[in-house]
Design a protein that fits this description.
- The chain has 128 residues and is of the alpha/beta class.
- The chain has a single domain (6-121), classed as Response regulator (Rossmann fold).
- It contains five helices and five strands.
- A five-stranded parallel beta sheet has the order 2-1-3-4-5, with helices on both faces.
- β1, α1 (14-26) and β2 (30-34) form a beta-alpha-beta unit.
- α2 runs parallel beside α3.
- The longest helix has 13 residues, at 14-26.
- It is globular.
- The mean pLDDT is 85.
Amino acid sequence: MAEKHKILIVDDEPGIRGLLAYELKYLGYETAIAEDAEQALVLLRGSTFDLVITDIRMPGAIDGIDLIEIYRKEHPSQKVIFITGYAIEEKLNQALQNPLNRCFKKPFDLHELSRSVAQCLEMRPLET
C-alpha cells in the first residue's frame, strides 16, 4: 500500500478546518490541523508535510504568507495552497510568483480545490 500524502490545514475558522479535513480524509489523505500560523510552524518543524493549505489572514503575530516564507527558509520546496476571504493584495501577488504556490478565494469550490491538491502533490519538487 502506498504511503498517504500528509497535508497540514491552517485556518482560524473551525468550519473551514473541519470541512477541508473531512474532504481530504475522504479522498485518502492524512491531515493535521492548526488554528494559527504559530501552531502550524510548530507542527511543520515537528513533522514533514507534502502540502500546506493555509488561510492568509489569521489572528496572531504572523499571517499565512509569513508562515510559508519563514518555513521555506528551512524547506524551500514546500508546496502550498493559500485560501483567502479577502481581495488579492500585493503581498499575495508576490507570493504567487512561486510556482509551488496556489490560491483559492473563499468561498471556494471544494471539488476544484481537491483537484488542485492532487495536482500540487504530483508536482516535482524544485531543485535546491
